[in-house]
Automatic annotation (TrEMBL):
This is Isoprenylcysteine carboxylmethyltransferase family protein. InterPro entries: ICMT_MeTrfase, Metal_cation-efflux_comp. It comes from Panacibacter microcysteis. One of its GO terms (cellular component) is membrane. One of its GO terms (molecular function) is protein C-terminal S-isoprenylcysteine carboxyl O-methyltransferase activity. Gene3D superfamilies: 1.20.120.1630. The chain crosses the membrane at residues 39-62, 68-86, 117-134. The keyword Oxidoreductase does not apply. Keywords: Membrane, Transmembrane, Transmembrane helix. Pfam families: ICMT (PF04140). It is found in: Membrane. It comes from the Bacteria. It is a multi-pass membrane protein. The lineage of its organism: Bacteria, Pseudomonadati, Bacteroidota, Chitinophagia, Chitinophagales.
Length: 185
């Protein structure tokens, strides 16, 4: 489990640093967020706390394998890496709060050619991995369903802002890409 603590610590530290360092600026349109960032942090904190607690008090294994937690950790790492790549590709247009930057450009290349929210795909994959790491159906559902739901709200808020900014170009982008998973959703 030491590996789990290392992965979790790196992930949490990276998210806290992003939250502190990559925020909208004074010249950006900041009025589009609707507090989704706050809701994300609250739901994540509650869901993960409950998921961990439930993993200690119940035994509902996903599979009967001793090392199944490594599958979850591998998904966590893959999700974190996918999120980092997506953030890097979005570059100066990435912020932790839903914002339209000055001179904002619609990203449609790299990962964004295939899905509209690859950063969210990555973070959701990491949360799926987190739930799987506990090898407990209840923990998996308690962590993943609320987190996924609040990210759906966040994506809707972000898409409204992008639609208002880019109009027909963003409508076409929506029609040609899926939100999180190519060809699926």
């Amino acid at each position: 489990m030491n590996l789990f603590y290392i992965i979790s610590g790196i992930w949490l530290t990276a998210e806290i640093l992003l939250n502190r360092l990559v925020r909208s600026g004074k010249g950006d349109n900041q009025k589009v967020d609707s507090n989704t960032e706050r809701y994300l942090w609250i739901v994540i904190a509650i869901a993960v706390t409950l998921g961990v607690y439930v993993s200690f008090i119940t035994y509902q294994p996903i599979v009967l394998l001793n090392n199944f937690s490594y599958v979850g950790m591998a998904l966590m790492i893959a999700g974190i890496l996918l999120r980092i790549i997506a953030i890097k590709q979005l570059g100066k247009y990435f912020t932790v709060d839903v914002t339209i930057r000055q001179e904002h450009q619609l990203m449609q290349s790299g990962l964004y050619k295939h899905v509209r929210h690859p950063s969210y795909t990555g973070v959701l994959l990491a949360f799926l991995g987190l739930g799987i790491t506990f090898n407990n159906w209840y923990s998996l559902l308690i962590i993943f369903i609320p987190v996924f739901s609040v990210f759906v709200i966040r994506m809707s808020t972000e898409e409204k802002a992008l639609l208002a900014q880019f109009g027909e170009a963003y409508k076409n982008y929506i029609n040609n890409t899926k939100r999180l998973l190519p060809f699926i959703y």
